């Protein structure tokens, strides 16, 4: 068993998870079980209460608190806060590397990501598209770069069906009265990538509470919305040194739109094209 003073010294020199991994062999049986949970579920810790962890492991909430204190923290909230800060530092914006290495690495990552999309099961994709095709209204939500993806989805999906609208979760959070428009049969399509937006989590939970089914498009991390999603697709997003790749999301949006068009037998695409011609929207 490592002492609290020794643990506190190590906390200053390494990450909380590294501390737990290093001291694992010195823990008692119960503390080993708790430590392994923290190590294996580090990305989930910011979203879990001590009570939820205790219930999962079959121990008391006090056992989680005492464990955190034994490894040098004031309690579970202190340990949770440290892990959250370290995740933010790891997943935040980084300084770019050398131009040559960045270019070659980027294209290699893009090829790998697109190859990885082929691992998504066809029946899962069909269910996803069918749910969108049959929805009363589609709320497409995201924050920051994910809102850009929501706008792309709105633009493409609107070619085939009505009542598709993209929302910035940051703006929705400032005007929550819009949630009163949710109706039975609505679907919320959520885009979220690490670092997961607090606004996206809160708004999606609210939409779910008001009756919308949740379809989640996310990366391969552990989204806090995974527990309430009716369906979810996790995409590879390995990108440059600085940013995650958004290409897999754009490709998947296009594929899902094609599947939706098949479900809707073209939907209102023909009528939309006729109107585009009538109003001379395009040059040719």
Could you characterize the architecture of this molecule?
- This protein is 54% helix and 9% strand.
- The chain is of the alpha/beta class.
- The chain has two domains: 4-91, Winged helix-like DNA-binding domain superfamily/Winged helix DNA-binding domain (Arc Repressor Mutant, subunit A); 120-278, Rossmann fold, CATH 3.40.50.
- The radius of gyration is 23 Å and the shape is globular.
- The protein starts with a helix and ends in a 6-residue tail after the last helix.
Short description:
By secondary structure, the chain is α/β, with parallel strands linked by helices.
Distinctive features:
Arc Repressor Mutant, subunit A, 284 residues, 5 strands, disordered N terminus, alpha/beta, 13 helices, globular, Rossmann fold, 54% helix
Produce the secondary structure layout.
Blueprint (H helix, E strand, L loop, with lengths): L3 H10 L2 H8 L5 H12 L9 H8 L3 H10 L5 H16 L7 H19 L4 H13 L3 E5 L2 H13 L6 E5 H6 L12 E6 L5 H12 L3 E6 L12 E4 L12 H17 L5 H10 L6
Parallel strand pairs: 1-2, 1-3, 3-4, 4-5
């Amino acid at each position: 068993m490592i002492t609290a003073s020794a643990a506190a010294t190590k906390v200053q020199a390494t990450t909380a998870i590294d501390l737990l991994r290093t001291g694992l062999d010195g823990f008692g049986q119960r503390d080993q079980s708790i430590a392994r949970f923290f190590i294996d579920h580090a990305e989930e810790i910011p979203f879990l209460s001590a009570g939820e962890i205790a219930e999962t492991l079959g121990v008391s909430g006090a056992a989680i608190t005492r464990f955190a204190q034994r490894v040098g923290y004031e309690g579970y909230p202190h340990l949770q806060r440290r892990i959250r800060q370290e995740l933010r530092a790891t997943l935040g914006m980084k300084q770019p590397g050398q131009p040559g290495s960045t270019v070659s690495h980027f294209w290699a990552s893009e090829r790998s990501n697109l190859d990885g999309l082929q691992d998504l099961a066809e029946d899962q994709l069909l269910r996803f598209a069918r749910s969108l095709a049959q929805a009363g209204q589609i709320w497409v939500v995201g924050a920051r770069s994910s809102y850009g993806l929501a706008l792309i989805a709105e633009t493409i999906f609107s070619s085939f069906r009505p009542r598709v609208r993209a929302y910035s979760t940051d703006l929705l959070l400032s005007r929550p009265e819009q949630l009163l428009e949710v109706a039975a049969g609505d679907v919320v399509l959520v885009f979220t990538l690490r670092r997961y937006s607090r606004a996206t989590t809160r708004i999606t939970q609210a939409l779910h509470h008001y009756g919308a089914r949740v379809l989640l498009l996310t990366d391969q991390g552990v989204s806090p919305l995974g527990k309430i999603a009716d369906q979810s697709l996790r995409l590879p997003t390995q990108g440059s040194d600085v940013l995650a790749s958004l290409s897999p999301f754009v490709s998947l949006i296009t594929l899902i739109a094609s599947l939706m068009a098949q479900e809707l037998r073209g939907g209102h695409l023909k009528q939309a094209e006729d109107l585009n011609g009538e109003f001379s929207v395009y040059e040719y």
